[in-house]
Recover the amino acids of this structure.
């Protein structure tokens, strides 16, 4: 992009694409979430993209300089009980952990019970901002390869992604998040392959909930037109001069049953962190106006235990299991003081847990 944040001139874009195809020294390279994350935080691993493991597809034949394409994912599911009993269970897998809140919410008073007219009643999120208003941007400054104007534009597009993937009414109804996907670098093949699989045949390995908030249309729907949110958007210079934008936001979704006839309101709470790399097109092959996914992880309360349907499946009173006890470290889904690294420690065992409030 130019100094004012506009797109890269066509002739410049065509030049570095030709150089990349020809294998010219210094030509742009294909982006890699693994290369970024490994360089910044973790030791390199192998294996499928499950839990905290990283994904490394087969290396392509020579003829074009590339990064090794990969991504780091981490998902933790926190099952929340709204009665004095506790929800327990086992996910299987490794490297993923759920939090446990041992305070039972059965003692909440009548004036704390949420209703369709007041879906955040009794929730700390009552005082949080509504949806996009919570996604405030830091002041832009020249960073890495970008001018101040370009950084400002990257921040705006990063916020657009968080809005489209977590707040768009159609996406929340289970529709395909096309506008969000359009902001992801199409040259990042591992992520594009994950998206294609996750949105057509969701599974533990390819779960769209790792990046998008979606509710099963036949199960539940968001009540009203307000989703509460709180979080932060920050940025720094990353590898190869890229501008890395980190969004760490908690979303609170009040939901009712999809079928009519019930006024019971429950809530699903999702804390989502995604690091978006705005790469220098002279060094990394990227589509102008798109970012490279560096990493993403999420922690979910009341989204469904051992759920691989591709949709959140919140539990209502009649579906809860009582008795037993939860396992794992205590955590509060509304807690914004605990870091994601503390909330989702690497190598921790993945389990369904118990929570005391939504």
């Amino acid at each position: 992009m130019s100094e004012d944040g506009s797109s890269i001139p066509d002739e410049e874009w065509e030049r570095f694409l030709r150089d990349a195809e020809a294998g010219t020294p210094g030509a742009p390279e294909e982006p890699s979430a693994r290369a970024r994350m490994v360089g910044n935080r973790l030791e390199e691993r192998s294996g499928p993209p499950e839990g905290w493991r990283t994904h490394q597809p087969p290396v392509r034949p020579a003829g074009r300089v590339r990064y090794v394409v990969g991504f780091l994912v981490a998902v933790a599911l926190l099952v929340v009980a709204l009665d004095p009993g506790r929800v327990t269970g086992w996910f299987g897998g490794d490297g993923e952990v759920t939090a446990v809140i041992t305070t039972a919410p059965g003692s909440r008073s009548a004036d704390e019970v949420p209703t369709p007219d007041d879906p955040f009643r009794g929730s700390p999120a009552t005082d949080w901002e509504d949806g996009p208003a919570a996604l405030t941007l830091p002041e832009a400054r020249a960073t890495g390869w970008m001018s101040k104007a370009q950084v400002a534009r990257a921040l705006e597009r990063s916020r657009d992604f968080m809005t489209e993937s977590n707040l768009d009414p159609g996406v929340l109804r289970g529709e395909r998040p096309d506008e969000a996907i359009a902001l992801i670098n199409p040259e990042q093949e591992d992520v594009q392959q994950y998206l294609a699989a996750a949105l057509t045949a969701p599974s533990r390995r390819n779960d769209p909930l790792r990046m998008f908030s979606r509710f099963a249309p036949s199960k539940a729907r968001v009540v009203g037109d307000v989703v509460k949110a709180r979080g932060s958007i920050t940025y720094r210079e990353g590898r190869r001069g890229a501008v890395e934008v980190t969004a760490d936001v908690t979303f609170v979704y009040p939901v009712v049953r999809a079928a009519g006839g019930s006024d019971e309101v429950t809530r699903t709470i999702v804390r989502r962190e995604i690091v978006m790399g705005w790469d220098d097109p002279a060094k990394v092959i990227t589509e102008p106006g798109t970012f490279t996914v560096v990493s993403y992880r999420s922690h979910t309360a009341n989204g469904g235990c051992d759920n691989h349907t591709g949709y959140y499946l919140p539990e209502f009173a009649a579906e809860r299991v009582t008795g037993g006890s939860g396992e794992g470290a205590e955590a509060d889904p509304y807690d914004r003081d605990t870091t994601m690294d503390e909330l989702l420690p690497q190598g921790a065992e993945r389990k369904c847990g118990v929570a005391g409030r939504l």
